[in-house]
UniProtKB/TrEMBL annotation:
Pfam families: RNase_Zc3h12a (PF11977), UBA_6 (PF18039). Belongs to the ZC3H12 family. This is ZC12D ribonuclease. Its cofactor is Mg(2+). Keywords: Endonuclease, Hydrolase, Magnesium, Metal-binding, Nuclease, Zinc, Zinc-finger. The keyword Protein transport does not apply. InterPro entries: Rege-1_UBA-like (IPR040546), RNase_Zc3h12_NYN (IPR021869), ZC3H12/N4BP1_RNase_Reg (IPR051101), Znf_CCCH (IPR000571). The keyword Magnesium applies. It comes from the Eukaryota. Residues 251-276 form the C3H1-type domain. The lineage of its organism: Eukaryota, Metazoa, Chordata, Craniata, Vertebrata.
Length: 309
């Protein structure tokens, strides 16, 4: 086994047996990117992410202290969404609102469109994060429209305001991106944003993996919220699988035969023949006899005679 590659992926938190299995399949000289893709495809995760599946007992943390322990159970948290087959959704409210407002207006209607899209799909856990100062009246330098939507979403326990305050006339704002990534990571959910959070990726290697694999980008087309059908690229999962806790693997599709109806391989052809779906699987010789209207039994007797000669 390539010891340097083994050590590298062990440091990332992957299990030794998974790494060895991938290196056996791909070869010892496989590129690190290819090994990482294969580990992800197998469903292998860094141990820190795997531990999320086992909720830790409730712990009290001193106010103001930071804890790196993943998956803490929050006081008063509703765990009813854990039975759902769909992943929790965490929406970057500022990113979505400014995107819908063409980067000029904070459009609260854009947030509502995104929330409605996920509700219609059946997601039960949806959280939107918006800075607290967006409660302030619209100003010329930071216009906001349909502000009442924020109040409605807050009443529905969907919208969460990140803290902000004024000190000597200057606004002090907490970093809302950190809230978004942290909650999505702890809930093992999806981040809805067109932001790449590069600073947070550099800050925490586990967050880097999570952001790369769980970031759902989107577009607004004529007031319609539209995520891509292939969130991780053409060779990645479909949108339905991306948003599901238990993805459904597609059936392996066979390549159509390049010769079509002119193919002479019969039932030995390894390619797909849609025209032969409802036909009996005949050998090449039997197919030729059928075309020339030679009785099947007679053909079999001729074969036996030829073999005996």
């Amino acid at each position: 086994v390539n010891q340097s590659k083994l050590d590298f992926f062990c440091k990332l938190g992957y299990r030794k047996q998974d790494i060895c299995k991938v290196l056996e399949n791909l070869g010892q000289e496989a590129l690190e990117d290819d090994v990482l893709k294969e580990l992800i495809r197998m469903g292998s995760k860094p141990q820190a992410l795997e531990n999320q599946a086992q909720p830790s007992p409730l712990k009290l943390v001193a106010r103001g202290s930071c804890s790196n322990t993943p998956r803490l159970k929050w006081l008063g948290e509703d765990e009813s969404d854990s039975s759902s087959s769909l992943r929790p959704i965490v929406i970057d409210g500022s990113n979505v609102a400014m995107s819908h407002g063409n980067k000029e207006i904070f459009s609260c209607w854009g947030i509502q469109l995104a929330v409605d899209w996920f509700r219609e799909r059946g997601h039960t856990y949806i959280k939107v994060f918006v800075p607290l100062w967006r409660k302030e009246p619209s100003r010329q330098d930071s216009p906001i429209t349909d502000q009442h939507i924020l109040e409605e979403l807050e009443k529905q326990s969907v919208l969460v305001y990140t803290p902000s305050r004024k000190v000597k006339g200057k606004r002090v704002v907490c970093y809302d991106d950190r809230y978004i990534v942290k909650v999505a990571y702890e809930k093992d959910g999806i981040i809805v944003s067109n932001d790449h959070y590069r600073d947070l990726q550099n800050e925490n290697p586990e967050w880097k993996w999570f952001i790369e694999q769980r970031l759902l980008m989107y577009s607004f087309v004529s007031n319609r919220f539209m995520p891509p059908d292939d969130p991780l690229g053409r060779h990645g999962p479909t949108l339905n699988n991306f948003l599901s806790k238990k993805p459904v693997l597609p059936e392996k599709t066979r390549q159509p035969c390049p010769y079509g109806k002119k193919c002479t391989y019969g039932n030995k052809c390894k390619f797909y023949h849609p025209d032969r779906l409802h036909q009996a699987q005949l050998s090449v010789a039997d197919e030729l006899r059928a075309k020339t209207k030679v009785p099947l039994s007679l053909g079999k007797e001729e074969e036996r005679c030829n073999c005996s000669l």
